[in-house]
């Protein structure tokens, strides 16, 4: 079943209207016919089972069959603060973390980041990364489209995360896997978690101290050293295993 997203203003009592690029995809690429069923989400944990009713000019109208009570989101909210990796690693990371249920991704400029983005490059990157995010959300049938935020400085990111809730910082020199198990296994439904993942060069010690002062828990992900693009995927997999309903 195909999956699309619609704005609230296009959702009515008994039907949903879709236009723009999705209309072109539905009409000219998929060549969908009246009666074919799809899932439509509004981006805020509301899903609808629908069927195509008709095409009208440059829009398509879907009849609402039912509103789904259960969505495809994890019962915990996860913001991934990712130290900017080099090359195209960020694209893979965004795609896979969204498939696994991340709520939001914030690229972070850290001291040991190899990649440096000026404002012009950053704007283009963010636009592309959000296109990848939307595609991944549709493919994995998410109920929301997780947003990739503009690149933040490390200190600003930590202050933002402190306001949201719990902060976890995986660090290769940390020990005590039992502590990690206990912390990740004791989260309550609706909890907002922030994970900070270092870049290829890892965290600077000053960055770790700043996170600790903000109340972050420094945790280990095991004895093996994970690449920057692997750590977030590992954490999302663990949370899916523990909390998927």
Structure write-up:
- The protein is α/β, with parallel strands linked by helices and about 240 residues long.
- It has 2 domains: about 1-70, Hypothetical PUA domain-like, domain 1 (Ribosomal Protein L25, Chain P), CATH 2.40.240.20; about 75-245, Alpha/beta knot.
- The protein is about 35% helix and about 25% strand.
- The chain has helices at about 20-30, 90-100, 120-140, 155-165, 175-185, 205-215, 230-245; strands at about 1-5, 15-20, 35-40, 45-55, 60-70, 75-85, 105-110, 145-150, 150-155, 165-170, 190-195, 215-220.
- The strands form 2 sheets. Strands 6, 7, 8, 9, 10, 11 and 12 form a 7-stranded parallel beta sheet that branches. Strands 1-3-4-5-2 form a 5-stranded mixed beta sheet.
- The two termini are about 20 Å apart.
Task: Give descriptors for this structure.
245 residues, alpha/beta, Ribosomal Protein L25, Chain P, Alpha/beta knot, 5-stranded mixed β-sheet, 36% helix, elongated
Which class do the helix and strand fractions yield? alpha/beta
CATH class (first level) name of the largest domain: Alpha Beta
N-to-C terminal Cα separation, in Å?
Answer: 21 Å
Give the overall shape: elongated
Number of strands: 12
Number of helices: 7
Spans of at least 5 consecutive residues whose pLDDT stays below 50 are none
Q: Percentage of helical residues?
A: 25-40%
Number of domains: 2
Strand content: 25-35%
Largest sheet: 7 strands, parallel
Supply Rg.
20 Å
The CATH architecture designation of the largest domain is 3-Layer(aba) Sandwich
Order of helices and strands: EEHEEEEHEHEEHEHEHEH
